[in-house]
Amino acid sequence: MPSADESQRLMMAPGTPLLIHTRVGYDAEGRPVRYMVSRMAADRVEVSYDLNTDD
């Protein structure tokens, strides 16, 4: 659940869950070069992935 500050900043209704999506980006040599964290109100987003399974 979101903190009071997160809930206020995202203008979330009481009781709304918070989605936290953490990602790491890598360069061509496989070294991590960025770290990203996104916070989203669960009632306003749809998260979907398209995975390439040909590899």
TrEMBL record:
Residue ranges constituting the UbiC transcription regulator-associated domain according to the UniProt record: 1-45
Q: Which superkingdom heads the taxonomic lineage of this protein's source?
A: Bacteria
InterPro entries, alphabetized: Chorismate_lyase_/UTRA_dom_sf, UTRA
Indicate what this protein is called per its UniProt record: UbiC transcription regulator-associated domain-containing protein
